[in-house]
Amino acid sequence: MFDDTRRRSRALLLALCLSLLLPCSFQPLPAFADDAADIAILDRTAKAFSSVVKKAGPAVVQIVVEKNATLGDLRQTPFDELFSDPFFEQFFGRQFGQRQPRGRDRIMKQQAAGSGFIISADGYILTNHHVVAKADTITVRLADEREFKAKVVGTDPQTDVALIKVAGQNLPVLPLGDSDSLEVGEWVIAIGSPFQLSKTVTVGVVSAKGRNRMGMADYENFIQTDAAINPGNSGGPLLNIRGEAIGMNTAIFSRSGGYMGIGFAIPINMAKNIEQQLRSSGKITRGWLGVMIQDVDEELARQFGSGERHGALVSEVSPGSPAEKGGLQQGDLIVAMNGRKVDNVSDLRNRIAETQPDTDVSLRVLRDGQEKTLSMRIGSQPKDLASGDRQRSRSGMGSGILDSMGLSLQDLSDDVARQFGYDKNQGVLIASVEPGSVAEAAGLESGQIVEEINRSRVRSIRDVPKALAMGRDGKQVLLRVRSEAGSRYIVLRAE
User: Fold this and answer.
1) pLDDT in tens, 83-105
2) Of all residues in the chain, what percent are helix, strand and coil, respectively (each to 5)?
3) Residue 59 phi, psi dihedral angles, 5° rounding
4) Domain holding 381: CATH number?
5) Are 394 and 292 in contact (CB under 8 A)?
6) Do residues 350 and 377 share a domain?
7) Which domain holds residue 423?
8) What mean pLDDT is predicted for residues 415-428?
9) Does residue 203 sit in the same domain as residue 146?
10) For residues 163 and 154, is the Cβ–Cβ distance under 8 A?
11) Cβ neighbours of residue 308 closer than 8 Å, sequence gap 6 or more
12) Does residue 419 sit in the same domain as residue 486?
């Protein structure tokens, strides 16, 4: 009896277990189906990348440049400076230089390689300025192994863009996209000849846009990408998933000289603007406003009546400049140009430079906390500003006048004014700066002059107390300080 009951219990338990297990045995089927769908997506993605490369690849070229020099002048030539420059070596490596060791008068050959891409069927090619600058010969090698000698149509060192030309016909052309529509996170593809390995393809995403202050060019607005860029990629295209060039690979951030996940490309819209000017005239004409401007931090934004940290603060207006004629003043905070927000100094500089001379623009500014719209006509950048115009930001110089801030001031004597190249009544002289003080931390040095305190002009020590009394509170002072680099606003806050 007891055995029968035990057998029935075991049977019931077994039946229950089977009822629970049977449905589970069919669970892997949907998982297999999902895996198949995912694989199909990956397959389509891979084929999409492959299709882009097949279409774009024929228009991407390898560029080999050469220069002949004697051993005696090898280290004195501008071309040698190009090849020995760390920026150049970062892309091409020292292994590309070829030298013959014997005889100071023996002809030596230097060689390096970069990349480029064809933008017209009759042979116009975009590349970097630093790839072809000072070269004696330029050889362009196509994907089908055809070779052409190239000539330089024109270059722009300020953006590192160059246009060269080969005598070809019906050449494959790479379509140009719109870099302004590019979004962070988009897929991008880099094609070039790193380490002379032609037709090398790497894939990544847009890591950031609008990178500047990299110190690689005067006008910087780089696209940052994690697509692998190595020596020899310089001048090659950065493509979107539609196979359009949206950038020109230009630089890498590297402590080793090789890929570290950070590369930079010139936006194609900037390159197109340069290319069009080089093709039509062989030179670049840039717009010019005639101001010194600086970025706005939280303190400066508050001092100049802005609730946001954006815009470009005018610290100086050149006499007779378009800015002066248009009514722009020291202390104006430029927050928009032609209705579009100005993010920072680099943003405004690039947009002014890209505007053709004699073009009318509108600037929205904050002046004494009040918004104003000014109209002015952009001028042409003077030739002497080609390598460093007065629209670029300057290193900060400024401080307070309170003893607690470590600053000592004195009147500007005739002798001191002549010594430092100032006018007699231009301001008050910074006589000394206390080590470790707020003034020193702000970058102040003796010999600089304070022209304004709290937006009030100071021409002698007698003007200082009144100017200090105009401050918004007793803990901070707004100064405009002049040095050899020009003038700049700064806010000093007491510790």
Assistant:
1) 444 444 444 444 444 444 444 45
2) 30, 30, 40
3) -90, -5
4) 2.30.42.10
5) yes
6) yes
7) 403-493
8) 76
9) no
10) yes
11) 301
12) yes
Query: Mean pLDDT throughout 487-494?
Result: 82
Residue of 164 and 490 predicted with greater confidence? 164
Active site members: 130, 160, 234
Structural domains counted in the chain: 4
Strand partners of residue 222: 211
Q: Are 59 and 97 in contact (CB under 8 A)?
A: no
Please report the pLDDT score of residue 363 as a whole number: 95
Pair (65, 156) in one structural domain: yes
Token reading at 102: 């014997």
The verdict on residue 71 lying in a domain is yes
Integer Cα distance of 485 and 166 in angstroms: 43
Of 281, 313, 347, the domain-final residue? 281
pTM as predicted: 0.63
pLDDT, average across residues 206-211:
88
Of the chain, the percentage scoring pLDDT greater than 70 comes to 75
CA distances to 349, 389, 391 from 346, in Å: 5, 12, 9
State the Cα–Cα distance between residues 460 and 478, nearest whole angstrom: 17
DSSP secondary structure, 57-68, as one string: GGGEEEEEEEEE
Confidence of residue 16 (pLDDT cuts 50, 70, 90): very low
Which residue type is seen at 187? W
